Amino acid sequence: MVDTEAASPLSHDAHYLVATAGLYGWHVGRQPNGPVRLTRPGWILTVAFHPHGEFRHGRAHGPAVEDEDVNLVEVLEILEQCGSPVLPA
Description:
Layout: H1 4-7, H2 13-23, E1 27-30, E2 36-40, E3 43-49, E4 55-62, E5 65-70, H3 72-82
Antiparallel strand pairs: 1-2, 2-3, 3-4, 4-5
């Protein structure tokens, strides 16, 4: 039996947020064992996860939001509302 937790560099919340960011045109920067940085012009979201991929905390900096703590739902709302869906080629 394969341990999918260990086999995947991203799992659960981390995979969902990174996939959503990509679908909405955000640039995704990952560092091994570090936070994920999601950027668009005017926006920076820094999101940290527990070792198994569960959301730990997020910080947002953008128009009308200056270095604020954000929860998982707020991160998703920012990704969707401030991103631009990438259309299939």
